[in-house]
# Entry
Amino acid sequence: MVDSNTPVVDLRDIWKTYGMGRKDDAVRVDALRGVSLSIEDREYTAIIGPSGSGKSTLMHIIGCLDNPTSGTYYIDGEDASDLTEQDLAEIRNSHIGFVFQQFNLLASLNAWRNVELPLSYAGVPSSKRRTRAMEALERVGLTDRANHKPGELSGGQQQRVAVARALVNNPSLILADEPTGNLDSVSTSDMLALFHDLNEEGRTIILITHDADVAASARRIVQVRDGAITSDSASTAPAAATSTVITSSIRTGASTPTASARIPDMSLRRVPR
Ligand code: ADP
Ligand code: MG
# Structure
């Protein structure tokens, strides 16, 4: 067990240069230039910056989807560069829930089939997958759309399916990259209310956005510009997003047992090698 004071995410002087293998120096891009950032368990942090400032690059590194060119990343106290591909896959599958701007749902599968996908990758038997997918859909207030395909759902509903998919492995850390980028203002409020509740349940949330109003819903705001952090402060208005009808159904779902006790400790189970 890792000491509870160990940050979940601890980046030290992280650089990421794209195009390193190329002969022509002109194609190299320093997407991150010496980022140091520490995020504690249960924090709700927004990372805000204009397009091209390095936000997605940062998210890929935090989510162990890509490696930095230099610098050190301690994930829950472990140096990520010491971990095997198998360890990293285990962290991604069991401890991190990813949400993207484009929803990334499979069009041919209905909602619960999309939500159960990470469980099949994790080797959960099919008998249990449907139950857990339905629980996750209930958590986001979409029980009545379980058999609908993405094309039969609104953008806001599709993103809630994507959040259910991110939640189905009960992750302690949620990484969302522009999750409201394709949503109207009502769906954006619902999504932010959902993130607020997931944080209240004890999940660590990192929300990436270019929108200051969206960032204001987090408790901490980290600004990125040209691949570097330019400010890091508590949000002046850590507002819970405005409630709507959908939000209240989400809240009802939250009154079922979702105690933080069910959220796994981030501690990495090391795979024997
Ligand atoms: P943001 O998410 O803030 O819009 P990104 O992290 O996507 O920013 O990009 C940061 C910089 O890195 C941009 O200049 C972008 O063009 C460049 N970049 C991103 N991904 C790649 C890549 N795979 N290859 C080369 N350059 C990239
Ligand atoms: Mg981006």
Observations:
- Residues 241-261, 269-273 have pLDDT under 50 and may be disordered.
